[in-house]
Amino acid sequence: MLRPALFSAAALGRSLLSSSSALGTCAALTAAVPRWFSAQPSPEEGDRTADAQYTFRARDLLIERSPVQQPPINLEDLKFGTVFTDHMFHVEHVVGQGWGRPAVKPFGLLQVHPAAQVLHYGLCCFEGMKAYAGVDGRTRLFRPELNMARLRRSARRLQLADFDPQELLACLKQLLMVDRSWLPEREGYSIYVRPFIFSSASALGVAKPARSTISILLSPVGPYFPTGLKPISLFVDELNRRAWPGGVGDCKVGGNYAPTIQPQVEAAQRYGTSQVLYTFRESHEHPDHGEFEECGAMNMFFYMEQRDGRRVLATPALTGTILPGVTRDSVLQLASGWGECEVQERPITIAEVRQASEEGRLLEIFGSGTACIVQPVGSLIRANGEVYRTRFSPDDDPAGSLSSRLQRALLDIQYGRVEHPWGVALD
């Protein structure tokens, strides 16, 4: 099976952050359409037209505070992604005019034309991030520059308006400070941050968007899986495909997620599983040659013991059909640094996992993602009735399992118990 070359999330983030090259001169544009903010450089900046033409500026951020504050939230009844803070971020781009003034404004409905391209052709992409209340009282983000870079790459794939990821990150930080009182100060809780960009152009046609909108929502949340570190079961989907080579599986676009709802609902009804683990194989290949890819919301890791006694932590390689997760990259770096096992990014087949399970060498399976951080998986269920179980789980040794230790290491960084460059403090 031919697959494209491999990239790490860290390398991807670095390359994207350094790729804000000029798109051409905007002198004619600024002369025809006067701008007093963002898209027009200030005199003291000198000649920065090539850089200023495609982005808004955090220094221009307008903050309009909500006259109404919602009552305090009850953390015990908090359902993931259903409660939102008092404010949101909003900025729009129009071809021929550039970016408007970025704003933090009271939370409210977005107005879009019934013919907006996002409604008809799915022209949207988004990110998932979290803000944490540190033990020292400071608000922290976790490696936010990678999320901003990935959002920009996803937007470019859809030909949405370009922007400077550092400027958007600076705007996000100010939004978080405005709604700082919403940040739960309890272990396992955070503010889920949802930046998204979509085509608000009102045109029934599959074409490059003439208008783009960026918004950011904040939602206080608890654990993504109510079971916490209790292992879940996954259904191995060998029929449906989450993504295809040459598609957008490596971008966080809305079209990747809507088609996964039906397989997930059917798997829950038939097998009682929490999510679906997708596979990939060519049509002429034996089903056991299918390669594991990812769940709709998690990258996957397999901790196995080789027949010679070596232990490996393997995750599917980034071949263009898998999202380069920020938490995925963090797990790889942490595990590599610990030096307890060989860390591999490579194809992992159903046959390999079945054999490891049958021989007691399948030590652990877990997923990683912003929402769940690290989620243990106790078993994989196939439609043919086969079930592959792990040898260990956090229930057996809560302190010693690899997934538990990785979860704890990440939480220590996110909540500021350990000083680390991945934990970006806002105040």
From TrEMBL:
Annotated keywords: Amino-acid biosynthesis, Aminotransferase, Branched-chain amino acid biosynthesis, Pyridoxal phosphate, Signal, Transferase
Pfam families: Aminotran_4
Stored SUPFAM superfamilies: D-aminoacid aminotransferase-like PLP-dependent enzymes
EC number assigned by the record: 2.6.1.42
A single MF term (Gene Ontology): L-isoleucine-2-oxoglutarate transaminase activity
Endpoints of the signal sequence: 1-22
Modified residues (N6-(pyridoxal phosphate)lysine): 252
Catalysed reaction, written as an equation: L-valine + 2-oxoglutarate = 3-methyl-2-oxobutanoate + L-glutamate; L-isoleucine + 2-oxoglutarate = (S)-3-methyl-2-oxopentanoate + L-glutamate; L-leucine + 2-oxoglutarate = 4-methyl-2-oxopentanoate + L-glutamate
Broad class of enzyme this protein falls into: transferase
Family as reported in the entry's similarity comment: Belongs to the class-IV pyridoxal-phosphate-dependent aminotransferase family.
Name of the protein this chain belongs to: Branched-chain-amino-acid aminotransferase
Organism: Chlorella variabilis
